[in-house]
Design a protein that fits this description.
There is one protein chain. The protein has 106 residues and is mainly alpha-helical. It has one domain: Cytochrome c-like domain (Cytochrome Bc1 Complex, Chain D, domain 2, Orthogonal Bundle), CATH 1.10.760.10. The protein contains five helices and no strands. α1 packs across α5 and α4 crosses α5.
Length: 106
């Protein structure tokens, strides 16, 4: 029973740490344009007409692979969206894709 409890605690801490890590990456790399909630209600977001990532229609239209590619290579629609493949690990990019999915409907 103690082993099971210890395993649950370790997994909970690891999941929590991962969630904190991706939130920190979002805050450091994405928040200034996309905002805390992905709605792009920031000065840069409005200036660049950045799409609201929380819109259900946008969430449905964009695949994980497409989101991953824009994060890695930059946006062909907006040159201000720089490539992050040299600044983020593939795991961080994947985590950001998952994080963006959590913004739906917020």
């Amino acid at each position: 029973m103690m082993k099971r409890f210890a395993l649950v605690m370790v997994l909970s801490l690891a999941t929590s740490a991962h969630a904190d890590d991706v939130a920190d990456v979002w805050k450091a790399k994405c928040k200034s344009c996309h905002g805390e909630d992905g709605k792009a209600k920031t000065k840069m977001g409005q200036k660049e007409s950045i799409v609201d990532l929380s819109q259900p229609a946008w969430q449905q239209a964009e695949s994980d692979a497409e989101i991953r590619q824009v994060i890695a290579d930059g946006s062909p629609k907006n040159t201000r969206m720089k490539a992050f493949k040299d600044r983020l690990t593939p795991q961080q990019i994947d985590a950001l894709v998952g994080y963006i999915r959590t913004l739906k409907g917020k």
